[in-house]
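We modelled the chain as a single entity of 117 amino acids. Its sequence is:
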Amino acid sequence: MTPTEIILHQQSRSLEIAFDDGARYKLPFEFLRVFSPSAEVRGHGPGQEVLQTGKRNVLITAADPVGTYAIKLTFDDGHDSGLYSWSYLHELGQYQDGMWHDYLERLAAANASRDPK
């Protein structure tokens, strides 16, 4: 699947993406930052994930295409090492509710906050 439209909504802090299969998703910047596909966030193997905290107000400062398969997002907290493939963005949209719910549970279990310190 390939995106047919990508819109950054700075005011609502969301990335809207439409795909050629008819799917359309609005992905909050915070969600994209927390689920970055980078090794810095995901680790280098199972169980090495790093819980992201304090990202509630994060902004995307740049969105650059990478070939014909991905987009590189740059966040205002300096994070810019994740390449978001079209299939990964589609997956994030498809499973957003469950992933967000799990993230909030992990945050609560760690007694951590979405708010910056």
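As a brief sanity check on the tokenised model: The chain has one domain: 3-109. The chain is about 30% helix and 30% strand.
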